[in-house]
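User: I'm writing a short methods note and want a consistent example. For Class I SAM-dependent methyltransferase, I'll paste the sequence; you return only the structure tokens, no commentary, since I'll be parsing the reply automatically.
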Amino acid sequence: MLNTFQQAQHDMLPVATPDEASRQEFTKSLKQFIQSSILPGLGPVYRARAAKKFEVETGRAPADRHDIRKAMVPDPYFQHYAAVNRISQELLWDSVIDSIDAQLPELKTKAEANSAKNAGKLVIPEDFKVPRYVSALDIHCMPGGYAGRPGGDSVGLGVLYDRGVFLYAMGYTGPDNDDMGRSVCNYVKRRLDGFSPKRILDLGCTVGHSTLPYKELFPDAEVWAMDVAEAQVRYGHARAGAMGYDVNFVQGNAEAIDFPDDHFDLVVSHILLHETSGKAMPKIFKECHRVLTKGGFMIHADLPPFDLMDPFTQFILDNETYYNNEPFWGAMREMDQIQLAKDAGFPAETIRFDTAPMAVMEFAQAADGYSQEAAEAVNDREFTAGEFAPGGGWEVLIAQKL
Ligand SMILES: C[S@@+](CC[C@H](N)C(=O)[O-])C[C@H]1O[C@@H](n2cnc3c(N)ncnc32)[C@H](O)[C@@H]1O
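Assistant:
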């Protein structure tokens, strides 16, 4: 079950020494162990003792995820789970930092050379202000967060995300960490028959993991990847060059997109929205509508809303809000995104939530894909990261400008 996929090496990733690789594999396996062997114990603990204790103390059964949290937090099994989960998260970033530090001068030289190979533009505006919801904390415990600390090194931060997030996802986002992009691309190919966008914008691209599959699917399209974090955009441009893609990268804010009206045929995002805020989301939806051409589509792949799941699952997923520096994780799931899309100008009949099946799963199932063992490992997956739709794919919100 462990190590379903290994990350594909490219020129911008440091080569880990055997010791570093072993520490990184350990953190990945530890996370998998927590998900497959400790997490499933929370349900029985809740039913057998925490809920009963809550009832004795309050005279009523837990009614929602907040009550369940009150019941579970004092329980030693839950405390053990939450602590070891947090430790695994911090360990994983630490396990990558050593190999970056050792190879930083070489990686900086490579970044310049690989950026030069990418014929797409790299646009870094002067005096750009990173929104506070990104700059104020180390999101998901990544040292420096997405945007880094003032004076920090940009190449190092990009590598840290690229390698670290692969371990974070335990390899399940595929060898190039691009499963969300691939899955949405498959969705577009199958569900939007004949749609052939000339200009595509990926908002909150980080290092462009999900962006590159769009260039693969639509090689003639002008593809733009946008993020508020300069370090991620710079690294993403170099990574795309190293992987043989011509894709444009721009530091920019999805709340105020610096492109003209009616410019893009497709605007997408992958796990961007839950990293923003309640004030930012309506602005982002309006901007998507503004920059889209008539007939163009907006697709956001992100966390499924809480109302699609039972209160105990909501409580489990909300642990990210409490213990993984993801302040908007829970609140975002309560936003009425359909209404936000309507308010932004998208006609009601074009707006829907849907499921984009995971490309890795489909690939694993294909006769000429990964080994049978890998296919079984993916399909047996017990982990519910929260990003996944109840149907076993990625949750997408889709709307069309008419
Ligand atoms: C979880 S990451 C996205 C991962 C990426 N889309 C992928 O699929 O690999 C969230 C990204 O959104 C960026 N971000 C947050 N708020 C933003 C905004 N208002 N405009 C553009 N990017 C933003 C963060 O800097 C971060 O890089």
